[in-house]
Amino acid sequence: MMLENEKQALKTEVEQFLWKNYHIIPETVSSVTNVVLQNWFEELDHEGSHLTADLIADNIADIANRYSVY
C-alpha cells in the first residue's frame, strides 16, 4: 500500500514532467491527471507497474491534446 506522501511525491514528479516536457500547466489538465494517477496508484498497489512518472506525463499530455482538455 502506498503512503499518501509517496503518492504526492509521484504526482509532483508527473506535474514537473508535464511542465518541463510539454509546457502544460498541471492545473489545466487536473481532471485527466487525477484519473490517470488513480489508475497508476492502484496498479502500483496491487501488481506493480512498468510505467514511470515521465511515461505517465506522456499519457496525460496525449489525452489532453487528443481531447483538448486544456
Protein model, in words:
With 70 residues, this protein is mainly alpha-helical. Helix content is 71%, strand content 0%. It has one domain (4-66). It is built from 3 helices and no strands.
Q: Please state the overall shape, judged from the principal axes of the Cα atoms.
A: globular
Largest sheet: none
Order of helices and strands: HHH
Structural Rg: 12 Å
What's the mean pLDDT score? 94
**Fraction of residues in helix:** over 70%
Helix and strand composition category: mainly alpha
- Terminal residue distance: 32 Å
* Structural domain tally: 1
Supply the number of helical segments: 3
Number of strands: 0
Strand content: under 5%
Residue runs with pLDDT of under 50 for 5 or more positions = none
List the keywords.
0% strand; globular; mainly alpha; 71% helix
Secondary structure elements and pairings:
Blueprint: H1 4-22, H2 30-46, H3 53-66
Helix pairs in contact: 1-3, 2-3
Brief summary:
The chain is mainly alpha-helical and 70 residues long. It has helices at residues 4-22, 30-46, 53-66.
